[in-house]
Amino acid sequence: MSRIGKLPVEVPAGVKVNLRGSEIEVSGTKGTLKRELPPRVKVEMTDGNITVSPADSGREARALHGLTRTLINNMVEGVTNGYTKVLELSGVGYRADVRGDTLHLSLGYSHPIEFKLPKGIQAAVDKQNRITLTGIDKEQLGMAAAKIRDFRRCEPYKGKGIRYAGEVVRRKVGKAGVK
């Protein structure tokens, strides 16, 4: 049995959880999230806690046990506090700018890149080289950050590109000079 799946998800005050069949809806101060639950997992609400248990002893049910509990916990955490991802641009002339719901990136290509932010994700830019993404859906926020990072990943020789804040890029030695 999953160690993570055994733990109950505590529902803080101000968060409403609605279980309808195989769908869970969590609403709080930041917004509302819905998710379809897998049929091999039972979810129960008791005394302000959500407990998840496998419906049978099959391999798939055991695999989904901890995953479902973590997804529900992320939903509760998202509607109460929200999530933040920070991306840093490093390189000469690399810039970012937010106009409405579009992120404009200048990353050394011959053309600027325009990235339309998904619904529910907000972006802020500090000093043109630090992008802060915020949202309540952890999965959607991570996907948006990964797509932005893929426009220009950090290369190992000079370290130019887009990286997560705190990410360490392993540097390689360049060509050795011939005497």
What labels describe this entry?
3-stranded antiparallel β-sheet; 13 strands; alpha+beta; 37% strand; single chain; Outer Surface Protein A, domain 3; 179 residues
**How many separate helices?**
3
> Largest sheet, described in full?
4 strands, antiparallel
Name of the CATH class of the largest domain: Alpha Beta
SSE-based structural type: alpha+beta
Task: State the shape.
Answer: elongated
Could you state the order of secondary-structure elements as H and E? HEEEEEEHEEEEEEHE
N- and C-termini, Cα separation: 63 Å
Poorly predicted spans: none
The name of the CATH superfamily of the largest domain reads: Ribosomal protein L6
- Remind me, CATH topology of the largest domain? Outer Surface Protein A, domain 3
For the largest beta sheet, what order do the strands appear in spatially? 11-12-7-13
Helix coverage percent: 10-25%
Annotation, overall tally of beta strands: 13
**Rg on CA atoms, Å:** 21 Å
What is the arithmetic mean of pLDDT? 91
Strand content: 35-45%
Number of domains: 2
